[in-house]
Design goal:
- Helices cover about 55% and strands about 0% of the residues.
- It is built from 5 helices and no strands.
Length: about 80
């Protein structure tokens, strides 16, 4: 698999860890909150502002949205991906 996927390939240890997690009924592949991790701030005003930018240019990048609206990349990403 390393030949096909290169450095993006999971190590054998990672495969064992994911197998253990799924066998223990952990089905979410998202990161769990960690201490000190910033929480994205998503307000109705921010959602509306992002919607306007995306309607103007549907190929706009999340980094560009965050810079234009002076918000964190994480907040812009959560709004664009529809996470709350």
């Amino acid at each position: 698999m390393k030949v096909q996927y290169g450095d993006a390939c999971l190590s054998l240890q990672q495969v064992y860890e994911w197998t253990r997690k799924f066998l223990n009924s952990i089905s979410s592949v998202t990161d769990s909150p960690r201490p000190g991790q910033a929480h994205p701030v998503v307000t109705p005003e921010a959602i509306a502002a992002v919607a306007v930018i995306v309607k103007e240019n549907c190929r706009v990048k999340v980094n560009e949205i965050a810079a234009h609206l002076d918000m964190s990349h994480g907040s812009a990403h959560h709004i664009v991906r529809g996470k709350k």
